[in-house]
Amino acid sequence: MREDFAKGLKAGVKFVIGTDLIGYPTHPQDQAAKEFELAVEWGMDPETAIVAGTKRGAEVLGLDHEIGTIEIGKKADLIAFVGDPIADITALQTVDFVMKDGQVVKSETMKGKKKEYAR
């Protein structure tokens, strides 16, 4: 699989990072960032990985006019991290806070309420 991924990168394939399985017992919600880490480990640069999980996903779903980038008039659920995920993709695992529908949700507040805050 790693070799196929590398071939795709070299060929210019526009990858999307995301899953519809987050929250199931086999795919804990707090492990969602592992896909980004794996993509970087397999040769994707961190910035491209983040685009694959935001802008590119919205484009593939035909929702890029509503979500996927931070622009005036678009809906935005935002995540702030402790650290710089461009310098170290594992920073995606250290969430400082989430903003959902304009409401800031501190990470301490999220504990035990993952289903409530999940999209």
Structure, explained:
The structure is a single chain. By secondary structure, the chain is α+β, with helices and mostly antiparallel strands. It has one domain (2-117). Helices cover 34% and strands 12% of the residues. It is built from six helices and three strands. It has a three-stranded antiparallel sheet with strand order 1-2-3. Helix 2 packs across helix 3 (46-53). The two termini are 29 Å apart. The model has no long low-confidence stretch (mean pLDDT 85).
Set down the secondary structure blueprint.
Blueprint: H1 2-11, H2 34-41, H3 46-53, H4 55-60, E1 78-81, E2 95-100, E3 103-106, H5 107-110, H6 114-117
Helix pairs in contact: 2-3
| Largest beta sheet: strand ordering | 1-2-3
| SS element count, helices | 6
Radius of gyration: 15 Å
- Any idea how many domains? 1
**How many strands appear in the DSSP assignment?**
3
Poorly predicted runs are none
Give the proportion of residues in helices: 25-40%
What are the main properties of this structure?
3 strands, 6 helices, 3-stranded antiparallel β-sheet, alpha+beta, single chain, 34% helix
In short:
The chain has 119 residues and is an alpha+beta fold. It is 34% helix and 12% strand.
